[in-house]
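quick one, 428 residues, struct below
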Amino acid sequence: MKLIHSHRLKFIRFLAVSLLIPLLTGLSNAQSVDLLLKGGHVIDPKNRIDGVMDVAVTAGKIVRVAADIPVSDAKRVVDAKGLYVAPGFIDMHVHVFNGTTPDAYIANGHTSVAPDGFTFRTGVTTVVDAGSSGWRNFKTFKAQTIDRAQTRVLAFLNIVGTGMASRFEEQDMSDMNPVMTANMIKRLYPNIIVGIKSAHYWGDYSQVQRAVEAGKLADVPVIVDFGEHRPPLSIEKLFREYLRPGDIFTHTYAHGPTDRETVVDEQGKVKPFVLEMQKKGIVFDVGHGGGAFAWRQAIPSIKQGFLANVISTDLHTDSMNGGMKGLDNVISKFLNMGVTLSDAILRVTWNPAQVIKRPELGSLTVGSEADITIFSVRTGNFGFIDARRLKLKGDKKLEAELTIRAGKVVWDLNGISVAGWESEMQGK
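---
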């Protein structure tokens, strides 16, 4: 019996050691870092970080943000000294339903762009398509673009079933079905579709009402492009009577007095109800676009303390080749209008993440997917153009150096993440 007991003890010890060694080895491996961003100035508004820190990434996730993380723990190190490190930028207003439908405008048309070609180079890792598709053609958009893109593509679903096919389809009240629109979100794609879009309607407030009805059914916000009404409809009435806290007014700084009421009056004063409605929860989105951003609206607004909650591009072929160019350029405009860097970064990271109800995005929180933008702010003599073809001179320009999506380097402007070519020769 003693011999049997002795054998049992030996077996138990062997089993314990056999299990413990892999466990300890696993713990040791867990300490290794796939990618270490060393010595950059981290700006993470959600976590209230604004200073020099290191950021460690393992298995595509943020695993640590701290000062002086040992280089010995890292398989790969990027020297970020002299650069800024931020959560991957979120562009909350783009059009990326690119396609070849004859005569199509935005929906499956040439005016929309393929996202990966225009996101990473500007520091953007997540985009939200602003209503290019409706419930009738969203599945096509998903198959063609969303499922194929490295960029994270989310979407506002247009209240018009066919989306932005053309201005004429966008007037069809019979194709504005709140129930079908809400069903597409709640029943099929709640993880992709983040809200409802109302846009380009020539009539009264009816389209907005349909969009808000869908928003209530699906429990998502509504984003409204409220131009193209002649004479202009009251935006004060829009804010007070139709939109809810959390709903979004886009093209905030547009100046189109013949078809869109402006936020700044002809005397250069921000209308008092605008600030009041922002405090009550209406979200203001820049949505620069090809024709929806004017210095004469933006500069007085910022000087008087009215700053849009979200900075976005309204990306499409017309805007990117005009005064807008890219989100990096739009952020630069705000820096040159006196907005602090931390306030600007807030409006392309944590603010849009909250607006679209995706709190897992827009920060460097440990455990979150490693979407990271490393950028510089260059100084020099620069010029910035608005939608009215007028220039603002500036001395600051944001430039994306390195963009990381889910832990993978997807944009490296100056090769800071790779070794010099001489290393290849030394290895032979």
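Residues 35-86+395-412 form a domain with the Urease, subunit C; domain 1 fold (CATH 2.30.40.10).
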